[in-house]
Amino acid sequence: MRGAFCPFRPGARPRGGGKEDEGWRVRKDGTRVPVQLTCSAWRTGEGRFVTLVVRDVRMRREAEAALRRMNEELERRVAERTAELQRTLDEYERADQFRRSVMENAVVGLLTLDREGRVTTANKVFCEISGYGEEELHNRHWSMLTSASEGERLMPEARRVVRERHTISNFEIELIRRDGRAVCVMFGANPLIVHGEVVGSVVAVMDITERKRAEAQVRRFNAELEQRVAERTAELKAANEEMESFTYSVSHDLRAPLRHIDGHVQMLLEEDLERPRGGGPPRADPDALGGLPMGPLIDALLRFPRVGKSALRKTPVDMNVRVARARQLVAGEPQAAQV
């Protein structure tokens, strides 16, 4: 430390306390220098005198200014970090409120697990599905909710979620409730990532017991319907066979008298041919007898039972031809009635 002072004699003692002050002094070259002045009064056997010590405090002033700047910079950084921390806390609070809102208002069961598979949070719906309270589930491993066989089946998939960031979807298992009753659930799982690191998983669970019960009931209804259809098909087949047999018998019974009538007509026609001309009117009219459609009617009767067994074939029909044919048949009825 640079300073200027007045010499004093050995054995001198200061009289009273010294005084200090700071100010500016002008150097020989005209520059102003900050200094500290220390003034002390001394008394010796020879008399009294005063010492004045002058210290250059430029370095101290510079150090103090640097320290003030450092304090101001530190305060600024602390304020910035405090504001940043407050923003982070606000964002965390909003995220936590959003998470709680989602957890509580979700229509499916939700729970979060840590990397080891222990439950950290569970919403109300999942508690209703499992029968456990959130406090009972906290820090318990998820395997407590399944049977041993289901746990072995699910364990590899659960490990992949946290190790490989694997996603599980539409996975059906049986969940064991607190009262020991098994319920069928469908669940999905996704890795829970914080700052780029997997810290656990989020699991969504839906109770599908009622859906499974409805599906089983639908399967029973379908089986019963198929059985009824098979029974009705067998009944219909038996009825068709019976109708075919009946139709064959009826057609056979109709053909026998038709053959007798045809034989009689042929005999009459032959006798008419052998009679001399002018021997009287003919006893049979071939034109009238030929118009009787008994043979085609019997053939149609035999074909009718087989219509239902053949495939439906659609063909264009000229209705004018059909109407003309019908008019011819109607016009020939009186002539056929005279026979």
3D structure, described in words:
The chain is α+β, with helices and mostly antiparallel strands. It folds into 3 domains: 53-102; 106-207, Beta-Lactamase, CATH 3.30.450; 236-274 and 283-338, no CATH class. It is 52% helix and 24% strand. It has 9 helices and 9 strands. A hairpin with a 4-residue loop joins strand 5 and strand 6 (119-122). The longest helix is centred in the last third of the chain and has 66 residues, at 209-274. The protein is rod-shaped.
Can you summarize this structure?
With 339 residues, the chain is of the alpha+beta class. It contains nine helices and nine strands.
Task: List the keywords.
four-stranded antiparallel sheet, Beta-Lactamase, 52% helix, disordered C terminus, alpha+beta, 339 residues, 9 helices, single chain, five-stranded antiparallel sheet, 3 domains
